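Technical annex, item 7. During the second reporting period the consortium partners agreed on a shared format for inverse folding records so that results from different sites could be compared directly. Each record opens with the tokenized structure and is followed by the designed sequence. A conforming record, contributed by the partner at site C, is shown below for reference.
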């Protein structure tokens, strides 16, 4: 009940890459880089466990970016031919690799990373992969000319990878789809279908993460244009409710998403974002608990997984780990409240005596049993005759 987790990335330590920066280049190479990445994963795991996070991850310490990490092991993607393109409907620009031929997964991409991570934690383990729609939105295309067809090829490659990761002991596989909040029509026409291809045959928990982006200026500026209510979820949640995906991760903390929209996901597990990754201020456990209570108005606690809104790689490390502690502490507050409430309901009520039992044995006023004298009022002796 109320098992906590994180949406994706954690800040990289200073020895590994430049802090608080997306696409930060590695500071090492070769065997030194591999060792530094493993050290960073150990730190990420222990920080999550110490904070009280229930479902942990590697914090994406092996990857420069949540999309491009997987693409490094895929044929048809040329990292030497990067192009500056607009992504997320031109919300911001990025230097992206180019698709130059048919997409095929030539070898396992994250298997060794999962083997290492799984060996160093006994907690439930989640691994994140980029979703098909978000992949095609983060690449320059010089081969397909059809986003839907390219997405389906990537979905098949993702499925091959996901099946191997499940076999290595991953408990939850999450597909990150921030593009779902942008290309609403495409979600309905081919986005969910591509997700179904990516999760085909999986028996572990499956999730899709849909947020309003990292806490970077381009995203926060965009959010200011969305009005007093953010209703993008309203368009896509009905399609996800009908899907075979198990969990949906959404942004709630510090957002203008009407909480009632969660009811559109009836039957799904909800990873409720209760930590605002765009604000460096650390939430209090009470504030986290308040957001969780709001979510519980529309979903039962067994289906609510308190989570971060998005990845935290752009945050300072100390801030990020303080936020994790607030996340776990806030969930513990609400979990305790629910357990007390259930205990009160389960406690048997004291039996009430029936009216017949209450009156049984009572004497009617003014009547005494024969042959008995009241100890309080002894009977008077008869007056002797002839005394006078």
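Designed sequence (site C submission):
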């Amino acid at each position: 009940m109320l098992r906590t987790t994180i949406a994706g990335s954690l800040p990289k330590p200073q020895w590994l890459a430049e802090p608080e920066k997306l696409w930060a280049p590695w500071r090492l190479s070769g065997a030194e880089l591999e060792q530094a990445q493993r050290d960073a994963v150990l730190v990420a795991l222990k920080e999550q466990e110490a904070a009280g996070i229930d479902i942990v991850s590697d914090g994406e310490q092996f990857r420069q970016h949540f999309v491009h990490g997987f693409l490094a092991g895929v044929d048809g993607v040329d990292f030497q031919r990067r192009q500056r393109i607009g992504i997320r409907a031109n919300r911001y620009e990025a230097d992206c690799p180019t698709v130059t031929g048919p997409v095929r997964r030539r070898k396992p991409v994250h298997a060794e990373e999962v083997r290492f991570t799984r060996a160093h934690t006994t907690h439930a383990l989640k691994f994140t992969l980029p979703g098909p729609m978000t992949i095609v939105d983060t690449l320059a295309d010089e081969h397909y000319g059809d986003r839907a067809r390219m997405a389906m090829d990537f979905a098949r490659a993702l499925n091959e990878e996901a099946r191997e990761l499940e076999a290595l002991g991953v408990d939850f596989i999450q597909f990150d789809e921030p593009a779902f909040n942008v290309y609403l029509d495409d979600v309905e026409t081919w986005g969910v279908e591509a997700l179904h291809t990516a999760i085909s045959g999986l028996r572990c928990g499956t999730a899709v993460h849909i947020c309003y982006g990292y806490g970077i200026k381009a995203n926060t500026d965009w959010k200011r244009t969305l009005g007093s209510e953010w209703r993008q979820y309203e368009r896509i949640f009905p399609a996800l409710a009908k899907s075979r995906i198990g969990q949906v991760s959404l942004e709630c903390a510090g957002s203008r998403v009407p909480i009632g929209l969660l009811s559109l996901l009836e039957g799904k597990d909800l990873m409720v974002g209760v930590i605002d990754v765009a604000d460096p201020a650390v939430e209090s456990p009470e504030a986290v608990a308040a957001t969780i209570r709001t979510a519980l108005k529309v979903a039962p606690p067994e289906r609510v997984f308190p989570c971060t809104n998005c990845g935290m790689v752009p945050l300072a490390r100390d801030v990020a780990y303080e936020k994790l502690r607030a996340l776990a502490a806030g969930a513990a507050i609400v979990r305790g409240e629910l357990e007390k409430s259930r205990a009160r309901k389960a406690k048997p009520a004291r039996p009430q005596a029936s009216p017949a039992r209450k009156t049984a044995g009572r004497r009617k006023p003014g009547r005494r049993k024969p042959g008995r004298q009241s100890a309080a009022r002894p009977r008077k002796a008869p007056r002797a005759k002839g005394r006078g």
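The chain is about 35% helix and 15% strand. Strands lie at 55-56, 74-87, 92-105, 124-130, 140-141, 172-176, 205-209, 247-251, 269-275, 304-308. All partners now use this format for quarterly exchanges.
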